[in-house]
From TrEMBL:
It is an enzyme of class 3 (hydrolase). Pfam families: UBA, UCH, zf-UBP, zf-UBP_var. Its EC number is 3.4.19.12. Belongs to the peptidase C19 family. InterPro entries: Papain-like_cys_pep_sf, Peptidase_C19_UCH, Ub_carboxyl-term_hydrolase, UBA, UBA-like_sf, Ubiquitinyl_hydrolase, UBP13_Znf-UBP_var, USP. SMART domains: UBA (SM00165), ZnF_UBP (SM00290). Keywords: Hydrolase, Metal-binding, Protease, Repeat, Thiol protease, Ubl conjugation pathway, Zinc, Zinc-finger. One of its GO terms (biological process) is proteolysis. This is Ubiquitin carboxyl-terminal hydrolase. Transmembrane segments: none annotated.
């Protein structure tokens, strides 16, 4: 019996399990869900005719064994690249700092011929039936045709990331857009720290485009819930349009709701309407808009681009395990650099690469939604060497595209207002985002992020009594201020800036950037910070205090973040174009925390509530009208001692990027004051109860997150083992807090990796990383991996140090 005949005979036994994909089904026909095998690879891709999941040859038998599904569509594709003659004429001039646009850096163009073939394969014997075949049952033909015609899950995710419309529907232009009344009330909206002006909710917030009020949305409107203050405000004032904060894009789009028309609408004048409140959207356009008109000013920026990519050197490509490049999936270079660095660390290698087989065996029914599984898949793709082989030679050669972690990107970005889009993102913020996901998915197992975890010690000394208080906090990265005043070439910098400002001709060799020793950055950490309006329990009155920060522990790996990005008052981001001399060996002994020292006396604990400070209501109201959150306005008035609106507004702008800018205001020195008994929000209890949790569990989660519903949901899933335990007495809970484990050792480190950013802001440009592998520096520039000749250690953004 021929293979086809035997296959058709065996196929009849599995007809009942054959399905035709419907509109709600996702078809994974681009890439294996457990590996980066695609139809382009030697063994092709197998798509299950029941689940529509795709599998490489190494993983399809596991799926058959676990599910009993035996019939697959085998996809095979050959890409034949043909060499093209080099164009004649002068070398193309680069005039814009971007990739793949007119005047920008041109990616390598290939002349590729594609040949595809299909077959129906029956496991476990891999009996093959060529497709098309007249003898195939109709159920199989219908399933195969639907799979081939369907948009792949990858394509659908790409469309979703680019889609800026509400639920994918085209919105009608609001009848109010052209004639919208906007009040000249002087209100300016800050770029962060928003809260509802009626109830202080910090999510599901809507900005009224008539007077700039920020109010919460309807109850359970988008899954987060609100108290309907925006709707009530419309009923009181009649102002029709509001835009949901957090949905405003760099293209000037956003979720705009018309209360009068009772629908989501399009506001073609949204950019102008937002600018009325000081929101400069045009300066935050995505790369192909804002960067398309950015000239490389006399090769200054091109010099940066060339240095960071080492494009002036004849770099030698390197292949094999640990040297796998990643395709830039449209502004995803930030992801590529972060994961390359992450999977150079033993803790992540041990958990996700060494444990990959176990992870794959334990994977859920849908591995595309399993974070641990996708991390293991990515680690195998990068570290195995399977996808890192020298390119073929010859005039006509078969080529395999570089790995493209679409599934991973879609999974880690799902639900995130920034990482779910195709826009360029900040590598530092993405690194922390991944660490949070790793922590969340490491319950009951090893947590690789422990290698980064460090404890910081804050010492606060009362200016009046000299008594002290020590507090500790956990961090996973050391963010470092870059002091421009410490530049060792100040005279040259001033001369260059003066020449540029005067309009004189600037030659390419004239460009000068500040050179700052990293020791100056460390000195900035050591400086004492003055805290005004500090309530001292020693004198029962306000005075000033001094705060110093040190490291209590020294982790296995220290991630250092240079604070190069800043926010101007008009919402535009600027980047410090500086050179920081990062040392190969870093000794942090001078930053080691001491704890309570002989002769120091602790500040006494507060034994009674401290009277609330009196804040000038006039100044407070003006700040609120300008759009500042209530808690931030309180801080501004408090720390400027009620000196006036101007002083308070200046303080607010200077502190607008503080992580606690809109957090509840607690006068310094009163943090340990007795708190009233916790009362859980009834509506939040109801919301959590509707998700299947008991009232006691809901209250426990809300108590742990200070009534923050969104955080409470995350807390529940990350503390499943604690949900039904009785609350511990305060003494026991406090002792457990101090027993949090940290890795600690010698405070001396060596540089083993760094990520570099090119461009004027984090939302545009390009990321490249360098990693020390086998005692030599390697550059990872998306799909290109090569031995580094001149690693630009002085131009980095994130630095990875390993403890010696």
């Amino acid at each position: 019996m021929s293979d086809t005949a035997e296959g058709l005979s065996v196929l009849e036994k599995h007809i009942s399990k054959i399905r035709t994909p419907q509109k709600t089904d996702k078809v994974y026909k681009d890439e294996c869900v457990f590996s980066f095998d695609t139809p382009d690879h030697a063994t092709g891709l197998y798509v299950c005719l029941n689940t529509f999941l795709g599998f490489g040859r190494d993983h399809v038998e596991r799926h058959h064994r676990k599910t009993g599904n035996a019939v697959f569509l085998h996809l095979k594709r050959d890409r034949i690249e043909k060499e093209e003659p080099q164009p004649e004429g002068p070398e193309r001039k680069v005039t814009k700092l971007a990739i793949g646009i007119e005047g920008g850096f041109e990616p390598d163009k290939k002349n590729v011929e594609i040949k595809e073939s299909y077959a129906v394969v029956v496991l476990p014997s891999f009996l093959t039936i060529p497709y098309p075949c007249d003898q195939l049952p109709p159920q199989v033909v219908n399933s195969v045709q639907a799979i081939l015609q369907a948009d792949s899950a990858t394509k659908l995710a790409e469309l979703e990331a680019m889609n800026q419309t509400w639920d994918g529907e085209i919105r009608m232009v609001s009848k109010h857009a052209a004639t919208l009344l906007q009040l000249d009330n002087g209100k300016k909206i800050p770029p962060s720290g928003w809260k509802c002006e009626k109830c202080d909710l910090d999510n599901n917030l809507w900005l009224n485009l008539t007077d700039g009020s920020i109010l919460c949305g309807r109850k359970f409107y988008d899954g987060t819930g609100g108290n309907e203050h925006a709707l009530q405000y419309y009923r009181e004032r009649g102002y029709p349009l509001a835009v949901k904060l957090g949905t405003i894009t760099k293209e000037g789009k956003g979720d705009v709701y018309s209360y009068d028309e009772d629908d989501m609408v399009d506001d073609p004048n949204l950019i102008a309407h937002l600018a009325h409140f000081g929101i400069n959207i045009q300066a935050l356009e995505k790369t192909d808009k804002s960067m398309a008109e950015l000239e490389v000013d006399l090769n200054q920026r091109y010099g940066e681009w060339a240095a960071m990519q080492e494009s002036a050197s004849q770099l030698k490509p390197v292949y094999g395990p640990g040297y796998t490049g990643i395709n830039n999936m449209g502004n995803s270079c930030y992801l590529n650099s972060v994961v390359q660095v992450m999977f150079s660390i033993p803790d992540f290698i041990n958990k996700y690469y060494q444990g990959a087989n176990h992870i794959f065996e334990a994977a859920a029914t849908d591995p595309t939604s399993d974070f641990t599984c996708q991390m293991a898949k990515l680690s195998c793709g990068l570290l195995s060497g399977k996808y890192s082989i020298p390119p073929p030679e010859g005039v006509e050669k078969k080529v395999i595209p570089p790995i493209s972690p679409h599934m991973f990107k879609n999974l880690v970005g799902k639900g995130h207002p920034e990482f779910s889009t195709k826009n360029q993102q900040d590598a530092y913020e993405f690194f922390l985002h991944i660490l949070q996901l790793v922590q969340k998915n490491s319950r009951g197992s090893s947590n690789p992020t422990d290698c980064f975890k460090l404890q910081l010690e804050d010492k606060i000394e009362c200016g009046a009594s000299g008594k002290v208080k020590y507090t500790h906090r956990t961090e996973y990265c050391l963010s470092v201020f870059v002091p421009l005043a410490a530049a060792v070439n100040q005279e040259e910098v001033v001369a260059f800036e003066t020449k540029k400002a005067s309009g004189q001709k600037i030659e390419p060799g004239d460009f000068v950037r500040p050179h700052i020793p990293f020791s100056a950055c460390l000195d900035a950490i050591k400086l004492e910070e003055r805290i005004d309006q500090f309530y001292s329990s020693a004198i029962s009155n306000k005075t000033f205090a001094k705060r110093t920060t040190r490291l209590s522990t020294f982790p296995d790996f220290l991630l250092i973040h240079l604070k190069k990005f800043m926010l101007r008052e008009d919402w535009t981001q600027m980047k410090l174009d500086v050179s920081v001399d990062m040392p190969e060996t870093l000794d942090l002994s001078s930053l080691k925390g001491t704890g309570l020292q002989p002769g120091e006396e602790l500040l006494p604990e507060l034994t009674a509530p401290v009277p609330a400070p009196e804040l000038d209501p006039t100044i407070l109201n003006v700040l609120l009208e300008q759009g500042y959150p209530l808690e931030a306005a309180k801080k501004a008035v408090y720390f400027t001692k009620g000196a006036g609106v101007e002083q308070a507004a200046i303080w607010a702008m200077e502190h607008i990027t503080d992580p606690d800018f809109s957090e509840p205001f607690i006068p310094p020195g009163t943090e340990s004051a007795p708190k009233s008994e916790f009362i859980a929000d009834p509506e939040s209890i109801a919301m959590l109860s509707s998700m299947g949790f008991t009232e006691a569990q809901a209250i426990k989660a809300l108590k742990a997150t200070n009534n923050n519903l969104e955080r409470a949901g995350d807390w529940i899933f990350s503390h499943a083992a604690e949900l039904d335990q009785e609350d511990q007495p305060m003494e026991t809970a406090a002792s457990n807090t101090t027993e949090e484990s940290f890795r600690n050792g010698n405070p001396v480190y060596r540089l083993v990796g760094f990520i570099t950013h090119m461009g004027p802001s984090s939302s545009v440009g390009h990321y490249v990383c360098h990693i020390l592998k086998e005692d030599r520096w390697t550059i990872f520039n998306d799909e290109k991996v090569a031995i580094s000749e001149n690693p630009p250690k002085n131009l980095g953004y994130l630095y990875l140090y390993q403890r010696i």
